[in-house]
Amino acid sequence: MDRRTRNQDGPPRDAVTGSWPIPETQEGGETIVAPATPPGRGGIGVVRISGPDARRIAASVIGEVPTPRRATFARFLDAQGNAIDAGIAILYAEPASFTGEDVLELQGHGGPAIMDLLVRRTLELGARLARPGEFSERAFLNDKIDLAQAEAVADLIGAGSAQAARAAMRSLEGEFSSEVRGLIERLTGLRVYVEAAIDFPDEDVEFLGGAEVAGRLADIDARFQRIRRAAGQGRLLRDGLNVVIAGRPNAGKSSLLNALAGVDAAIVTPVPGTTRDVLRERIHIDGLPVHVIDTAGLRETEDLAEGEGVRRARGEIARADLVLYVIDSMEPPAAAALANSLAELPAGVPVIEVWNKIDLQESPGAQPPPDGARHVPGTASLQLSAVTGAGLDALRDRIKQRAGYEQAGEGAWSARARHLDALRRAGEHATRAKQQLERRTSFELVAEELRLAQRALGEITGEVTSDELLGRIFSDFCIGK
Questions:
Q1: Cα dist from 297 to 301, 352, 477, whole Å
Q2: What is the pTM of this model?
Q3: Which DSSP state fits 326?
Q4: Rounded Cα gap, residues 50 and 481, in angstroms
């Protein structure tokens, strides 16, 4: 069924020049246009047109309607018949196109002026400028792809690693959606059993307490676990991990940032308080994107600039997924002082104690942290040298473990926070349904919990959605996609 009835377009946005006209809505639907290649200069530039007027625009711009799915070399003409450019025109006839509508692509030379002239010409012919993500939105509304697949389009474009790209491609090909639909089908099958028992109350207890229902519940639980694990890996590949390097001044925080990044990103001096602002580097650990954030040393200070740096450091720590608390192993704090410092960190944020500068010890790594300082309960601890690199591999492994990241992630699908939230809510409803079945409570409540679980899963693929959600999702897409 066409999803178009569930969507209401917001006010059109002029996303290219800020001055192009936006025509009134045409009867039978609007035709949209946008560059499908990034702004700038390149060998090829593509202008994409989708909608009922695509063929008429083709006839005006290239002088003919090209045979669908056949590349046609042509001159692209302005209103006076003068050539704007020469290139390839391809028509994809509805419904066998990305959007499900007639789609025309004009592939010319990739210069900003040429792209501007081609877009302006199509606007003169009655098209309007597409909103961000509107081509993908139309594909979703016309049932060419579901919502998870539409999001995977943007994730594939924005993939920062080969692993993330493969995960996005698996989602785009429908693997994630297929697993979710399979789980919905099993919840539906269980609801049939429950609602049948409601219709035959004299037999409901024995009927729902049998091996068949127990087996269905076990299968549903196993599928939930598998999907959550794969989606969780996909979320890590997409969004990465925010790792904040914190600690006292001169502990070697900036040296550790440089060692992890493999470049001299941060200034390193023996003067305490050198780092006064937040420095960020993006690295990959076996495909896991990690946003490493170096911060000012944590201490009381009357220096206004350094004090602002400390304030920003604490703000980054509060938002961190993981904190690397760096300690100078040559001048370690007393155990009580260290415990107090770690206690000031936000509750619930995982912390790894990093005892740095072991290269300066007589027997590096052979002894526990010197001068009686000890590991603080509730944190992990390791020793390394940011200068020589000793212990860095162990730190990378510890970061992956803390993130729950499985190397390679071949079974991962590209996933977003909203997907994991929907899976969490669906799982909670399914768990409550199982508990109520075991307690032999009202089976109407069991059926309702199963229905709510199905509804939450439907949000992932877009079977259950809202205009507000669609607006948020597609507004983050590229223009022309």
A1: 10, 16, 38
A2: 0.75
A3: E
A4: 11
